[in-house]
Amino acid sequence: MGTFGLRTEVGEGGLPVIYVSGDLDTQSAPLLRKALWDLLLNGSQVILLQIDGVEYVDSSGLGILVAALRYANEISGTVAIACPKPRVSRVLRITGLDKIFSVYADEQEARRALATCEQV
Description:
Radius of gyration: 13 Å
Number of helices: 4
Structural class: alpha/beta
Strand content: 25-35%
Order of helices and strands: EEHEHEHEH
């Protein structure tokens, strides 16, 4: 099990980026949920999850991601994912979540794509 880490930064153009590392599982998912909801409920419509440090994700972690995306969509926003490792990419592909999330191999590519999204 990888030690969970999370930090939030507001980048260029006001884009909030949540950097996540370690295992995204039953124990750590509530921490990510809090970070996502803090941003969403305080006016952020577009959020980038940079997950190059995530080694493992379980159903509770996936559930948090889907709930955040669903809420973001309700407010005309989105939650995007950048830099998933092959193991996490495989989970996203198997579950079909790669079809509902914008997933980017590179953080800069994600930033460029999300720069066109409207920020509140």
